[in-house]
Input
Amino acid sequence: MSYLYYARFTVIVCPEAAVSDCIPSISFIISFTPYCFIRTATNTISITTWGIIWTLCTRFSAYSVDDSGVNDRSMADPVDGTRVSGGLDSSSMGPRADTHSPLPFSGWDFWSILPTNAVLYSPETKLPRTRELALRRAIPANTNMKAIQASLEDISYLLRIPQRKPYGTMEGNVKKALKTAVDGKDSILASIPADQREQGSTLYTSLIDGKGGLQALLKCIKDQDPEKVSVGLASSLDTVAELELLQAPGLSFLLPEQYLKYPRLTGRAIVELTIEKGDGSSFSPEAGGEPRKTAKIQVVLDGYSAPLTTGNFAKLVTDGAYDGTKLSCINQAIISENGAQKNGYSVPLEIMPSGQFEPLYKTTLNVQDGELPVLPLSVYGAVAMAHSEVSEEYSSPYQFFFYLYDKRNSGLGGISFDEGQFSVFGYTTAGREILPQIRTGDVIRSAKLIEGQDRLVLPNES
Output
């Protein structure tokens, strides 16, 4: 007997005969939020079975049907019955596909069941959940550095285990990272440009023996202090990222020739946006400060994964195109006005799939088939371009949005319903606390490129 657990403490008794042709082992479904898993005799489940079960569940979990029989994306809140939407609600961001189940459930009134706020998805996915992790993984660095990074990042997952934490495994991961760093020293330093090698050597020494280095992290693990381990791990990973950035002075791939007519960013850049309240009110004060009429937000642009999208955005910023732009709040997003009169480029949809060495153009990712982006939308404060009004194969020349990720309105693996559908090109790194305070009518008073001007390549200037 197998059990499928998903969403909301509702028990549906299913005669095995009703689904025997498709999923013979399922005898009943229990629903609860927010976790999902399958228990079988062997504690395993095939990808094919996941696909079948996803098809089975999404018809009556991710959508409801109104009296006219038309699919409705909004869903009832389990507490007060209010309606919440399951995805971005903007015509400029493109339509959403309906999902239908081919399975034989005639006579079953599934629509009386409280719909869930999530689509069934494997909970084992390791999609980056923070901006730091996503940006670090996007750096095209030396293979030894990536091996060190992977060993350390595994510890962050082990730290989430409640009660008795596997300190022995953590210690093994750090020792593995240390061995890779020591054995691969020459390779690591050789990957850094000659003019920055001295800085790289200093960072390398800090990674091994520094106050926040691997040796210090090893001691924290032996002391079995989870808080110290967490702090030490963050410090080591920050040093890893600094070293990797030195190893990646430009793009690791060649752009298709037809795209060389667009502006492009060949690395990282930082944009600072000054936001002003449209109604004359104030933003909440910083700790110990006074209420503010304006607030600043910083966004890191990742040209490694989206060189064309970031290039166009950075050029618009330097041209002052976003100064005075009004913002609107829609479900889970803060979107800029259309700006039809602005001189942006209609850049093709640009998404770097995880595990690939160059972006895909003019195509979305199929998340249900396991395609995941290097820069996920499923991170609070992700920044992406809206779709072009002409074709979804292109991004808007000007209109962008901040995505306000909410796990309650995402798939059970924590995946946004809109994952893999937009050109994500960066993340809010400073001023994230400002995002929930922004209201429709607030204004971008100014936008400035404060770092990375030297990495912006304009057409005919390469």
